[in-house]
Model the fold of this input.
Amino acid sequence: MRRPERPRRARLAPVLLVLALAGCATVAERAGERFADDLGQAVFDHDDPATIRDALPAYLLLLDARLVGEAPSAAVLLAAARLYGAYAGSFVEDAERAGRLAQRALDYASQAQCVLESPLCNARQLRFDALEARIAAVGEGRLAAAYVLATSWAGWIQAHRDDWNAIADIPKVQRLLERVVELDPDHDRGMPQVYLGVLHSLRPAALGGDPDAGRRHFERAIAIDGRNLMARVLFAEFHARLLFDRELHDRLLAEVLEADPVAPGLTLVNTLAQQRARALLDSAEAYF
Done:
């Protein structure tokens, strides 16, 4: 049996929070507490990833400009973290550039914790036992911010996967995601479950992974919202390929390609999922 290949850079970002093309002045005026809700929905429902990819860079700079000053808004910091992380994870192929953008996403998410006076302020500098205690203190009021930190951190690890110092942070991110699930098992339409499925499926059981737990998380995510096609794609890519389960792999990807990608708030992610599913099926014969 051939040895499993190193997992390729996953598109871990749960959703793409992006700006509608509404004019810089108008966007700047409105980029505050309702930033995400006001400006994201039109793009969540977009069915052309290339349009979104080409439009994003100017708005990333706009967000940076909004954060210049001594008292940045936590809401804008979190929005910037989501946007940078989503762009790096979904649209940037160059590894060095993706690493820089993922670092910025994590920096913004970390800064937001301190602005919010969250228990997770300076979380990245803590040893696991100290961080675990801080994570346990996170309540529902800080759930959304904790989730952004977890996903930004996961994206940073993926972008720096050749750095053992980054890999060493996986248990911290995993525990943070577990806390999110403890507080709200269905949060973000089941995407924390998908993240946990990926993390448990990065390594075989003999090397410290837990593929059985990974499968449970993936299946739970699909049960929460079966319209999220990315859950099936990552289930196939990380779990089925880890175990060389060709039947499961091909079945999941066939379900993705047969599904209607149009769903409120998921159309763009589903379109990306179908593109990824086709690529995985095209490479399946060589892999298995």
About this structure: Residues 4 and 36 are 39 Å apart (CA to CA).
